[in-house]
Write a structure and sequence with these properties.
Low-confidence stretches: none
Order of helices and strands: EHEHEHEEHEEHEHHEHHHH
Radius of gyration: 20 Å
Strand content: 15-25%
Structural class: alpha/beta
């Protein structure tokens, strides 16, 4: 599919680093969409494998941006700078879209101009195609901004399901390239502070979950998550910047206490539990006591 319009409706961005083994499936899933008014930009982020050769085989069907390796956020930002569409959709190189995903999402966002970003539910599969779990639209009982502070997995499908109005994406400044592993949640929070979000309950994307693909660097992600909570605190209404924010922070420490404990770093895990009591002894005290009990008794978490 070679774009014929100067400004396509959607710019699809696929960041690819050493992705020769998978990027073709991602590209094919985009080219197979029934909605056709899009451009497909693949950012080759300094790959050293056969990624460039795979991409060259698609000719004018895709637009390739070659750059030195700068990481996922840097590659996504490079794609944003090259994009021409009114909307921008992202897809990781090892995931792929289901038929109708793009059309359903563009229809949703065109029919409601108040929605600035959206996603779809997703299926999570292993390399053999077995269903591991589903990633549904998350119920939200508060404002969506507050919801994201309470849990960083608030966007169903993650970045591979995300569609954003380009003007709003540029207004937020794009991805924060200084963060490690939680730059997605950081962007979602900044978007939720200025616009509305919607989720399509029908799965639109397959998320590939390989062994070891989750949280390979827990410590870097932990530091990033803590930074995200601090740097975006002022985006919350003043009434939520106190006890509510501290309870959310305590939840972050609780999550990473579990990860550290599972990794065998028990002293560090216990240190995170102490932060729970310091930040929110009433709201998160039961969480802290439960973690402390299980860690002392050596129970699995």
């Amino acid at each position: 599919m070679k774009p014929t319009l100067e400004q396509p409706a959607v710019s699809v961005i696929i960041p690819a680093y050493n992705a020769a083994w998978c990027v073709g499936k991602a590209i094919d899933s985009v080219l197979a969409q029934d909605f056709r008014d899009f451009e497909l930009i693949v950012v080759d982020d300094g790959s050293t494998d056969e990624t460039a050769a795979v991409l060259s085989g698609y000719g004018d069907a895709i637009r390739v941006v070659h750059q030195a390796n700068g990481g996922m956020s840097n590659a996504r930002n490079a794609g944003i700078r090259a994009a021409k569409g009114e909307f921008i959709a992202f897809l990781d190189a090892d995931d792929w879209w289901l038929p109708g995903k793009l059309g359903n999402q563009i229809e949703l966002m065109r029919s409601n101009t108040g929605i600035g970003f959206s996603s779809t539910a997703a299926r999570v599969e292993d390399p053999e195609g077995r269903l591991l779990n589903t990633w549904p639209c998350s119920p939200c009982e508060t404002s969506f901004l507050a919801h994201l502070f309470q849990g960083n997995a608030g966007i169903a499908g993650g970045s591979s399901a995300l569609m954003v109005r380009r003007a709003l994406l540029e207004k937020t400044g794009g991805y924060d390239e200084t963060l490690g592993g939680v730059e997605d949640a950081d962007l979602w929070i900044r978007l939720a502070a200025i616009t509305e979000y919607a989720c399509i309950p029908e799965p639109g994307v397959i998320i590939l979950r390989r062994p070891g693909s989750v949280s390979r660097n827990v410590e870097r992600m932990r530091q990033g998550a803590i930074r995200v909570m601090h740097k975006n605190r002022n985006l919350l209404p003043a009434s939520l910047q106190g006890n509510f924010w501290r309870a959310c922070m305590a939840g972050i420490y609780g999550d990473y206490a579990k990860w550290r404990y599972r990794a065998g770093h028990r002293a560090a895990a216990l240190l995170d539990v102490t932060h729970i009591f310091l930040l929110a002894p009433i709201a998160r005290g039961r969480l802290g006591l439960g973690l402390l009990r299980d860690m002392i008794l050596g129970r699995p978490l």
